[in-house]
Amino acid sequence: MSDPLSKPRLSEFTRAEFLEFVASLANAEGLTEEEDDRRVDHFARLVEPHPHGTDLLFWPEPGADDSPSGVVAEIERFFHARGLRCFRDG
């Protein structure tokens, strides 16, 4: 995966690249706390204007699919419902 921090907009990711990025957020092994925080902050910026932001990862709604694919599907649903561009391949 290319460096996800080098992509300032969600629309610069393919769905597969973003899924890989979301999955990597669950495994911060080998990262410093600062590096992990930068990646989580970047996720929050990418998914704006979704009202739940990082809560999708760390405090999901009861019954929500909080797997990486579930998080990506929710972001995609939210963006498409508002006519916003999501991933560059969809």
Automatic annotation (TrEMBL):
It comes from the Bacteria. It holds the Pfam family Colicin_Pyocin. InterPro entries: Colicin_E_sf, Colicin_pyocin. It comes from Stackebrandtia endophytica. The keyword Transmembrane helix does not apply. CDD domains: Col_Im_like (cd16363). Keywords: Bacteriocin immunity. Gene3D superfamilies: Colicin E immunity protein. One of its GO terms (molecular function) is toxic substance binding. This is Colicin immunity protein/pyocin immunity protein. Belongs to the colicins ColE2/ColE8/ColE9 and pyocins S1/S2 family. One of its GO terms (biological process) is bacteriocin immunity.
